[in-house]
């Protein structure tokens, strides 16, 4: 594949990076704690009459950049309270939303990819093609993968087909995840039928630090990265380079005669399941005069993977070459007399090319999206604030076969009002987004409320409407036997959820993370005008609006930190789906690939010099077709591991990870086998000149900093 398509955007990024300035570094830059650490501490007034709540503004998309030294615990359910949250917290962007924050750094040494780090979150299921580098996507609260928005530091990652492939985001880049469950249209725009996930990349630090990590394990899998961070040009910079590969030739069991009762399974070996790739991340941030801040990001990734096909239809040839370039530039600060302000520009370009004799591959494809976004937040008296966002962007896709191309623009305006009543006990948050996506007008209202009951108890509830405009591929691009349909209407979701929360105690005087926290809630949604493909004689298929589905369920999360060296968490999801399409073959049946039950339990214990962990994931049986004639059996996956940081100058950590200890041979959606038992060993090193030899590594559970949400 030719990568010349990257040259122009790279030049643009170079020209947009801040130049050295003659001004002296601000007070915040001269202080050892990071910028975001200072924002999470009690804030002095930024100007006369300005409170801590009036510090720099949040973003319209879920772009949160918090320093690696100050982030939320491994699995934190956001709990509402009276104290104003930090300006960049997910609560500020969606004050009543069902949000879970997962700190990836507390999973260091576990040799897990991005999808595995997310799979433990309630209300969320991963659709996995099996093995390192193979496609992985998300289903949130029953919404299809193309109805879940995924962002990288606020840059949208959903492709021309509406999907986002998590396998293209290596875990080495990730600092934490913010998972919003429920309709996300009012706050994040078209596509958020079931929710939104923001992947926060590693942030630069104020002190010089170099680090590296290498992992080797089953099926000749090797992963590694090196990183360096520290002061640069009056600000802070981070450079990270990563790479990995795997043969992916694991064994799996298959019934070669499914029509014969009692036929014993035979063992096969996965072929053409290899993948390799690499990339780089560059981040730069700088404090400007007046307390505002500038952030720049560049991310590049390339990958080549074989196309193994399903068990029933294995591929003997064919490869996918994929690439992505993402650029972002963001400013936020306080505007005199106007409140908080934020401005962002972003650009992303994806490249996809399928080689080999794959019917209907469609040739090389390029998908580009870029835009700008402005947001302001202004207090309206002591108990009210108004947030307004204006955004516009352009999007295009080109495909080599038949010189197909399509492009459109987006524009939106969003307003959110926050009313704090009864001395902050009750918060009422109405919001609405009016959006133009290509030829479609979309209106996404939402009403949320939260109540602080005292003694650690609270309630929250939300109701609203979200949309997903048809994707470019569904509308305009022919792919093999799949025909487009330019007459499609947007999908729509009507949703509601409510939850009760309780927390008690805190880890320490310095750390306000609760020792005990529990959240229990329910949700319901009606999905209308869902898009599905229907056979079009003689051998073609075309998408139409005809599906309708109902979804409802329960979610339970709990976390306990009874001792500084012990962390335990659990999450349970009960999901009920019902196909409402009038065809009697499908009517009333569960939607495929939506398991009714999922339970995850996890414990991690021990000091940094030796700690152990264990995790159990149970997932019930699920259908794999709409008629209900085929299903996948339930599965229970057990994993365990241990880590030891036995040196501190330099810091050296050795970890061992055992996945799928019981060697469960199972499949995921549409017949992709999943790997069996696997073993991985990880060696990590870090050197920070001047650091104390007694410093505790930040990824250990007992060293977790306080959650930025009170």
From TrEMBL:
Region Disordered: start-end pairs: 20-97, 691-710
GO molecular function: siderophore uptake transmembrane transporter activity
InterPro entries documented for this protein: Beta-barrel_TonB, Beta-barrel_TonB_sf, Plug_dom, Plug_dom_sf, TonB-dep_rcpt-like
Any single biological process term in GO: siderophore transmembrane transport
Biased composition regions of type Low complexity, renumbered to the chain: 71-82
Keyword Cell inner membrane included in the entry's annotation: no
Residue stretches making up the TonB-dependent receptor-like beta-barrel domain: 352-661
Membrane topology: Multi-pass membrane protein
GO cellular component: cell outer membrane
PROSITE patterns recorded: TONB_DEPENDENT_REC_3 (PS52016)
Pfam families: Plug, TonB_dep_Rec_b-barrel
Domain TonB-dependent receptor plug: 93-196
Keywords, alphabetical: Cell outer membrane, Membrane, Receptor, Signal, TonB box, Transmembrane, Transmembrane beta strand, Transport
Subcellular location: Cell outer membrane
Signal sequence range: 1-23
Family: Belongs to the TonB-dependent receptor family.
Protein name as catalogued: Outer membrane vitamin B12 receptor BtuB
Organism: Pseudomyxococcus hansupus
Upper lineage: Bacteria, Pseudomonadati, Myxococcota, Myxococcia, Myxococcales
